Structures are given as structure tokens and as C-alpha cells.
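Quick question: what would this complex look like in 3D?
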Amino acid sequence: MSEISRADVEHLAKLAHISMTDEELTTMAGELDVIVDSVKKVSEAVDAEVPATSHPLPLTNVFRRDEVGEVFTAEQALSNAPDAEDGRFKVPAILDEE
Amino acid sequence: MTADMTRLTAVQMAEALRVGEITSVDLVRAHLDRIDAVDGGEAGLNAFLHVSRDEALATAEEVDAIRAAGGAEAEALHPLAGVPIAIKDLIVTVGQPTTAGSKMLEDWMSPYDATVVERIRAAKLPILGKTNLDEFAMGSSTEHSAYGVTRNPWDTDRIPGGSGGGSAAAVAAFEAPLALGTDTGGSIRQPGAVTGTVGTKPTYGSVSRYGAIAMASSLDQIGPVARTTEDAALLHELIAGHDPKDSTSLPDEVPAFGEAARTTDVSGLRIGVIKQLQGEGYQDGVLARFQESLDALREAGAEIVEVDCPSFEHALSAYYLIMPSEASSNLARFDGVRYGARVEPEDGPLTIERVMGATRAAGFGDEVKRRIILGTYALSAGYYDAYYGSAQKVRTLIQRDFAAAFEQADVLISPTAPTVAFPLGEKLDDPLAMYLNDVATIPANLAGIPGISVPGGLSDGLPVGIQFLAPAREDARAYRAAGALETLLTADAEPLWAQAPELSTAAAQTAGE
């Protein structure tokens, strides 16, 4: 049974904000299908009793003191921006014109 | 001396600098000449994406001046001061470009240094440049770099491993005595194995990750690349230690890794052979060198036991769910707004959503897209529990396997990679076959434990790597075992790194005429 369809990849690519051509979607669907088919057996390897591990070592959360430390200047922060104006990042239109 | 300067170990270079036999400027120049001779052009290794000639020479001059002046400042120099180093281009550096091997960061200049880079600068190791890698460290062959493949110095038609193929090839080819790598699923150790060099993945959290461009944050770890265990151990000592800028940084004291690596006594050391990391899928030549290593260790007094890690069967699957999940989240930052490339769609309105889609389509390569989509899938509603959730549970089972194994053995041993270096292009169209390269290295990342790969001999003229694993925070134990094996295998033979074939390149041929 196919795990990932072309339509699935189209939806996922939209979620991940990656524009894909028809050809890419088809190729990716085929490749991901093989990969998912081989990794899906993890769900059979475990049961509800096993706790999940999200982090390899037992560390508790670390808080720093609420003090201003070293920070970038606006100039440094904007030095790599594709577009900037008046000391701010310039963002393309958020809303469609329609 | 001058002619062979690049063929010394880092420890020998440091000693020659200390006694005034050579200068750091000479040493840096020798490496820059070597880079010029073997790295560029069609047949060149392409281990370096950027060479920082002026900066490296300036640091070298500074070290030489301090040494020449003598006194307290000279006394206070770090033992490795003046010994050059190369840095994987995933680690950010002020004044030198950082691309992560991606078009997305083609013209990006980091406004800050990674903590490990700060430490290297403070110790005054001249930074020769930035080394090639699979894009965002995603790959096992360095073929996924947006800036061309790196070639293996042992056979330039073969892969140097990945993702840190540039660092490993540079060290193997005498372009640098030391380098930094990052290891998420084997990216330091597997390149080490296939290039006949030494690479360590430290305990998770023991070396700051601040300034390493994140792929999978719960697995990523910066570590040393070198030609000998002792060289790797000394670089490890330099970069390890607590860093308030990394919230997962361990507050531990840094042990004397160099001293551990110099230990040659393995009598009574219990070495566990992992049942699951041998046999099917491993080349005969790899298994033969592995057996010889076991025999050598046994003869030297080590006790070899077999340990069973049944959950390792699912390690690769768990890894290829957890890693892409974390990567898809980490790489969301490349939005075409704050830094990196911005690509506008050819037609239609320029909304942020469409600009972002076009930017990420043009900026990311195929493997990165594959992992982002896979991760997005594993994290999406309806699949989260079955895939990401189950993978995290497998992680617990793998930790339990390791805990049980370390009750029977002090260190564990396995081949580092199932095969020797394969031909360039061989696995490029088969992602799953590429992923299988990491089968022996991945469990350590999932469990956060340290691992080191050391040369174990040749198979058909290509290097084989032997991996030692130790419990978390016991990196010194892995160095002890690795250092001992290195001593045993080089007792009657030249070290592997000294046996690498001479590279013939256009530049080298011209120089010889």
C-alpha cells in the first residue's frame, strides 16, 4: 500500500513553504513512500508502557537572570537581511491583494 | 623538516613550535601551499569552501611574536597555539563566510562567532578556512553540497564520507592537522572511517553547540577531527566545557582527554562487541579488520565480551523520523526575510507566502527538501503519535540497551561504517541506501553517548574505521581504548594516515616540473 501520495506531498510542501514543480512532487512522493515504508515499523517496536525520550541527557530547564547581556546592534541584525528600511526588516506583503 | 612539516602530527607541530624549530608562519604557509597544490581545479579535493589566508597568517605572526618575546605571555600560550585548524562550514565565524553548504546562505556573513570558534581564537590556532559538507549537514557523502563534491584523498573517485567530508579529507590530505566537525548521526565518525583519520562525537552537551547551524538539536554535537587519537583528544579538551549560551550545555569539568589517549594499557578492560552491529550488510574486508582489532586488543589483555542490543534494529528508523522532524522545524527559520537568500516568484503577486515558497524552492537542495517534507509528515496531525512519538520511545529502548551493555562492558566496539568509501554517485539516487551508511553511528546520537572512530587498517586499499563507544560523560574511556588500539596497530606498521597515496593534481604536477 502506498504510504504517501502525490497529493500528500503537495499538501506537506505547502505546509513547509516550499514551492514544487509537478515533476518534483511526483519524484518526492515516490522517494518518501519508500522511506516511510521502511521506517514505519517503529510503531510496532514500542508499546504504551515505554516512556518517550525527547532529550538524550536528563537536564532541567536553565534560566538566565533577566538582565540585558550582549546584544546585536540593529545594524548587525540587519546586515544579512535581503531587504531593510529605516532600521527594520522589510517584509513582502502579508496579505494577498484580493 | 620544512618539506615535511604538514606530515607531522598536531602534537609534533606544537612541540616544534615550542622549542623554536619552526615558526607558526612557516607552518601556516606550508599548509596554504598544500591547499593550493591539492584542493583546487577539476581533479582537486575541494575540501575547502573558503581559505582565510590573511587571517591565518596574521594569527600565526601574533603567536610567533609572542614566542619570540618570551616571558609570561609566551609561557601562557595554549599548547596548540600556532597549530593551524580548519572549520566545518556549518560552524559560524566572524569575518569568514558560513554557507552550511547551501545556496540559501551563499553570501551570508555571521555577525557572531560560535563558542568553539571563540575558544580556538583565544588559544590562537590559525584558522585556515571553512570545509565542505553536505548541505546543512544532511548526507553521508558530501555529495549534497551546493558547492561541489569533496574527493577522498585515498581514491579521488570515491566519497570522503559525510556530512563532514571536507574536514576529514583536509586532515587526511595534510591540508590541515586538525579540524572541527559536527556529528548528528555519524558526520564526524563515518568520514573519519573512510579517510583513515580519527573523529570523535563527544557526549551530548559536553561541547557547546552555540553557533553550529542546527539540523537536529537533540542529536547535533560538535567534535574534533585529527590524524591521531591524541591530537583529537587535545583539540577536544580545548573546545569542551560549559557554555551559558547553550541551554543543553553540561556543567562538567573537562577531563584530561590527551592523557587518556596516551594510555596504552588495556589489561582488564572489558570491551563489548555489539551483536547487532556486524554481519549482514557489512563488507567482508571491514569485518576482517574489525576481527583483527579485537584479536589485538584481546592479546593485549582486554576482555572481549558480546553484548546484545536488540532495539538497535529500529535505531535507523527512529533516527530518520526524529532527525527530519527536528530539521523541518529548525530550517523553518530560512524565510527569505531576516537573512539568507530571497527569491521572488516569476509571476503573480509578491506576497510573503509566495516569496517564501520560491526562496525555499531555490535555496534548498533535494536532500534538504526531502528531509523537511519527511519531518513535516512525521509531525503532522494523525501521524505524530505513530511516527514521531514511537521514534522517541525507541530512543528510550536504545538507551536501555546501552545501559545494560555498559553493565557488562566498560566500552563498546563496532565497525564505524558498514563499508569502505564507495564511488562518487553510487548512492546519490537511492536515499535509503545512503541512509544505511549511518547504521552503526546513529545509536550513539540517539542515546547522547560519546563515540570515536580510529583507523583499523585497509580493505582493498581503502581505510576501515573502528568505533569505540562509552557511557555518557565517559569520553575519556573511549579515548583510552582508542589510543590503545592505535598503539597496538602501529607497533609494527606505519600509521594509516602516513600511508595515504600521493595526490597527483594539476597544481602538484606543475610544481614538480
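Answer marked as accepted. The radius of gyration of chain A is 22 Å.
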